Automatic annotation (TrEMBL):
Phylogenetic lineage: Bacteria, Bacillati, Actinomycetota, Actinomycetes, Streptosporangiales
Gene3D superfamilies (UniProt xref): Jann2411-like domain (1.10.3300.10)
Residues annotated as domain Zinc finger CGNR: 134-176
Pfam family, one: ABATE
Cross-referenced InterPro entries: ABATE, ABATE_dom_sf, Znf_CGNR
Protein name as catalogued: CGNR zinc finger domain-containing protein
Organism: Sphaerisporangium flaviroseum
């Protein structure tokens, strides 16, 4: 019997952290970030050490996405492997908030370690199952936010519908300018 755990929701933690921008400027901002990331029950445990660890993890995960966006597959995988070594994953059975028993990925007692374990393991599972090219950086200027391409045809280029629309409108306007310039 084969048992498969969908770790896409854990991979989304990596995206949320990379895209957190200035949310980690303060403990209060980081607590709001954790609530928005669906980790409200952990926000009360956040320490200054966790805040610093999350900032460092954000930078390391951003480097993974950047390498993937540059089509540097080996570099992205090397960075993920280094993170896996630095943040060993410990699976744990958990039940909370009225849910059934389910699997959590942890790394010791610190909140930042738990977040790191989930985000890194989620990205690792996604990369090994779907490929490094599923990690992307939004191509709409000047966005640059990270995203996961879970589309069936590997066609995603933008982090959101908003950025896709903005890029399409900009391309349309550029074509119109080019056409009007050629007619003159």
């Amino acid at each position: 019997m084969e048992f498969h755990v969908d770790l896409t929701s854990y991979a989304e933690l990596a995206v949320l952290l990379v895209n957190s921008e200035d949310a980690l400027d303060s403990l209060e901002g980081a607590k709001r970030f954790l609530v928005e990331a669906g980790r409200a029950r952990h926000a009360g445990r956040l320490t200054r050490a966790d805040l610093q660890a999350l900032r460092e993890l954000r930078s390391e995960l951003a480097a993974v996405f950047a390498a993937a966006a540059r089509h540097e597959e080996q570099s992205a995988v090397d960075r993920l492997n280094a993170l896996l070594i630095r943040h060993p994953v410990h699976p744990q059975i958990s039940r909370h908030d009225g849910q059934r028993w389910h699997l959590h990925l942890t790394e010791g007692g610190q909140l930042s370690g738990e977040y790191a374990a989930g985000a890194i393991m989620g990205l690792t599972a996604l990369v090994t199952e779907l490929g490094v090219d599923r990690l992307g950086i939004c191509q709409a200027a000047p966005c640059g936010r990270a995203y996961l391409d879970t589309s069936s045809n590997r066609s995603r280029r933008y982090c959101s519908e908003r950025c896709a629309s903005r890029a399409n409108v900009a391309a349309y306007r550029a074509r119109r300018r080019d056409l009007s310039g050629h007619r003159a």
